[in-house]
Amino acid sequence: MTCSEEYSRWFAGELLKLQERVGYFFTDPFLLEKALTHSSYTYEQGISFSNERLEFLGDAVLQLSVSQSLFAEFPLWDEGRLSQRRAALVCGQALLAWGRAMGICTLLRKGKGMARNDESDSSCADAAEALIGGVFLDGGYEGVFPVVSAYLSFQNSRIVFCDEEDDPKSRLQRASQEYGLGLPIYETVAVEGPSHAPLFTVRLLLDGETAGKGTGQSRKSAEFAAAQKGLQFLSRKENIR
């Protein structure tokens, strides 16, 4: 047996164990393989798929599922409190903790250049979202809600979700609502560089006004940078008053 065949056999066995831990077995196993494939691996191996689109979908599915769960569980909470709790449950640190517990981080296929860089934790959290997106595509709402329910049980068993002081998006959302500006809007205005090492630029809108721009090696990090600019923007407005 060649090294490649040995790895393929090991990987297939680990994917089965991962599905057991997550609590969902894929009808289309390729969706799971895609969820565990970072764009850097795509570039190095010359293959045609990565987990980026599944991450986009998984983020939306997780937001909706968690929102529905919190809405039903806490009927007396207002929008601000629900938003704060949701942000803590779906932030990068929460996704990373779940990804590590499920073994997603270990199985994520990345290019050699990604192995030791600063985005490694972020790429694992993104893969966790991609997996949820894959479950949704494979099994619809009926398939994904039990997975999200188990995800929430895992998060609720942890003492700390996220350090809100390190979450500028949550802080900006609360501040924006206090000023009566509504919810911040993040727009991706540019994606530059090669596909395996993109640089995202995100514009932040508050009440229809551009409040800042941020750049980062992932869409999330760019949004965080833009949120920091937004906090500075609100601080300047307060000083002018």
Structure, described:
The chain is mostly helical and 241 residues long. It has two domains: 3-162, Orthogonal Bundle (Ribonuclease iii, N-terminal Endonuclease Domain, Chain A); 166-240, Double Stranded RNA Binding Domain. Helix content is 63%, strand content 10%. The chain has helices at residues 3-22, 29-35, 39-45, 52-73, 79-90, 92-102, 104-107, 120-156, 168-178, 219-240, and strands at residues 185-192, 199-206, 209-216. The protein has a three-stranded antiparallel sheet with strand order 1-2-3, covered by helices on one side. Helix 4 crosses helix 5 (79-90), helix 4 (52-73) runs parallel beside helix 8 (120-156) and helix 9 runs parallel beside helix 10. It is globular and about 70 Å long. The chain starts with a helix and ends with a helix.
Question: Quick summary of this structure?
Answer:
The protein has 241 residues and is mainly alpha-helical. It has helices at residues 3-22, 29-35, 39-45, 52-73, 79-90, 92-102, 104-107, 120-156, 168-178, 219-240; strands at residues 185-192, 199-206, 209-216. A hairpin with a 6-residue loop joins strand 1 (185-192) and strand 2 (199-206).
Q: How many DSSP H or I helices?
A: 10
What is the domain tally?
2
**What is the CATH fold-level name of the largest domain?**
Ribonuclease iii, N-terminal Endonuclease Domain, Chain A
Helix content: 55-70%
CATH superfamily assignment of the largest domain? Ribonuclease III domain
Secondary-structure element sequence? Answer: HHHHHHHHHEEEH
Distance between the termini: 73 Å
Kindly name the structural category. Answer: mainly alpha
How many β-strands, per DSSP?
Answer: 3
Overall, the morphology is globular
Output mean pLDDT. Answer: 85
Please report which band the strand proportion falls in: under 5%, 5-15%, 15-25%, 25-35%, 35-45% or over 45%: 5-15%
